[in-house]
Amino acid sequence: MIDWKKWKHVTKLDPDKTITPKAVAEIVDSGTDAIMISGTQNITKDNVSHLVEMLKDYSIPKVLEPAGTEGLRDDMDLIFVPSILNTDVAFWLMGVHKIWVQHFDVDWEKIVPEAYIVMNPRSAVAMVTKAKTEMTPREAAAYGECADRFFHFPIVYVEYSGTFGDPALVRAVREKLHGARLYYGGGINSREKAEEMARYADTIVVGNAVYEAEGIEKLRETIVK
Hints:
By secondary structure, the protein is an alpha/beta fold. 32% of the residues lie in helices and 19% in strands. It has one domain (4-221): FMN-linked oxidoreductases (TIM Barrel, Alpha-Beta Barrel), CATH 3.20.20.390. α5 (137-150) runs parallel beside α6. The radius of gyration is 16 Å and the shape is globular. It starts with 8 loop residues before the first strand and ends with a helix.
């Protein structure tokens, strides 16, 4: 069984963005611990399959993080399933999950639930889920503590989606977690930013940097272990 709890660095690939097989090979070779296929907009069975096909010959752990039931498949190593904590729209906390369980044959051995705290109001995930992103570090930490202590989520994920976040907020969440692993994603495109967030997060997730100019070089800079 893959021990995802030991991962320090995960690379996130978006099915809605273009990437070459050569870039995928370089990402696999970069030293990242796992590849996560994840996105919010225009996620289809075809574009998820396209990414999976490019990754199929590599032994690196492969994770699917579905935004809904589109693109769901059972040939991934793990499926990280997000629930959005800071929204009043119950569909993103439990509703979409119920639909999935009702209509699909779930392999629970592969499922890892994630408690998402969405922080960038301009991000697609915030707009789609109507996330309430204006909060203090203390409020964010309370969400994290509830996710950990009340609901026993194995992952609390602070998501800034393309924008580098507030280290003080990430630290505040870290300090309230007892059993959950802390993931951080958003705006990491340099060693300095990676080291800053890796001080508090158990795992940093790098996505947008891959698609920037000199993306693979930027990705390598972010791998700190």
